[in-house]
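Lab meeting, item 3. Inverse folding demo.
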């Protein structure tokens, strides 16, 4: 399966320092999808520069907006003599202290670039295909802006530079997904759609289709519907690895990955794992090995009410329910 190609605009990354409908889990999921080979991220040195240049401004705006909300109102005289008024005062004081503590922690971590969004941005960019902005690409972007062609605004050059980079480097016949929320890549008529000028240009010069999403969450939900959390990417990879195992050592490796995830495995996933355990001899022939047996017994115990009597008999034969004999044989 070919990885899905995507370009994430700077505004998406910067939004994690302000207010966004996405949460940090989406960035973790992007990183895991890149690591697993399911997603190919194209980025540019322009995006990296824009992020580093603007992150402090975004953080400052977020802190100002957070503090501008004000404090809860004081207690009117008619309420002051009720016992609950003291609870209210204590709660207000607690909120004020928590608010101040949050601001101080964010400022400290921002100064050392230890904010979760910073750490994930650095890892994601490190795993991306980062396109350097050459003088030739800069001149093409300048010509594009002076010609009035999208993307971007007439007062800036960032989007034009990134677009020329993508046209130059992304392989022919690639369907490219753009995630951007500032409207520079979108249609004026239907803002949720990609700009038709850009879609036509991409089709003519690259041969692929150009698509747009305004947030990471809907993009990930659309292209990876079974993925809810970053751990789901790793889980899906390990399940597929176990199902298609071609050696005893590979089976042991995938079981080791799946052990900590037993609690999050669904019935549909367990159903596939049971089928593989009975049909793939690289699993069934080592079904009595302690790690394999206890992994399968954990799933059998979890989904016993969904397993038919006939299937249960087969599973019991391959993965027998026997007492642990070794210290490392610990049930889930």
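The presenter then showed the designed sequence:
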């Amino acid at each position: 399966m070919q990885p899905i190609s995507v370009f994430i605009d700077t505004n998406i990354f910067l939004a994690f320092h302000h207010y966004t409908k996405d949460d940090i889990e989406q960035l973790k999921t992007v990183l895991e999808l890149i690591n697993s080979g399911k997603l190919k991220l194209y980025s540019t040195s322009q995006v990296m520069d824009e992020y580093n240049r603007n992150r402090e401004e975004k953080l400052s705006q977020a802190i100002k907006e957070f503090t501008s909300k004000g404090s809860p109102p004081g207690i009117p005289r008619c309420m002051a003599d009720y016992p609950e008024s003291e609870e209210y005062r204590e709660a207000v004081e607690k909120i004020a202290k928590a608010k101040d503590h949050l601001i101080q922690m964010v400022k400290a971590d921002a100064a050392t670039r230890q904010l979760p969004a910073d750490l994930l941005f650095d890892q994601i960019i490190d795993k991306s295909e980062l396109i350097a902005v050459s003088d030739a690409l800069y001149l093409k972007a300048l010509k594009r802006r002076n010609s009035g062609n999208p993307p971007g605004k007439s007062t800036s050059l960032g989007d034009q530079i990134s677009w020329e980079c993508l046209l130059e480097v992304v392989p022919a016949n690639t369907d490219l997904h753009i995630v951007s929320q500032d409207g520079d890549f979108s249609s004026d008529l239907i803002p949720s759609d990609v700009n038709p000028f850009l879609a036509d240009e991409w089709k003519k010069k690259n041969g692929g289709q150009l698509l747009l999403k305004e947030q990471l969450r809907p993009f990930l939900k659309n292209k990876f519907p079974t993925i809810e959390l970053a751990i789901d990417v790793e889980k899906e990879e390990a399940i597929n690895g176990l199902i298609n195992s071609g050696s005893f050592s590979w089976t042991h490796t995938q079981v080791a990955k799946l052990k900590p995830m037993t609690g999050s495995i669904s019935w549909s996933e367990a159903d596939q794992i049971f089928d593989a355990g009975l049909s793939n001899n690289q699993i069934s022939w080592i079904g009595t090995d302690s790690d394999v047996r206890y992994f399968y017994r954990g799933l059998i115990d979890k989904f016993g009410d969904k397993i038919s009597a006939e299937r249960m008999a087969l599973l019991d034969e391959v993965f027998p329910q026997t007492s642990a004999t070794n210290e490392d044989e610990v049930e889930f």
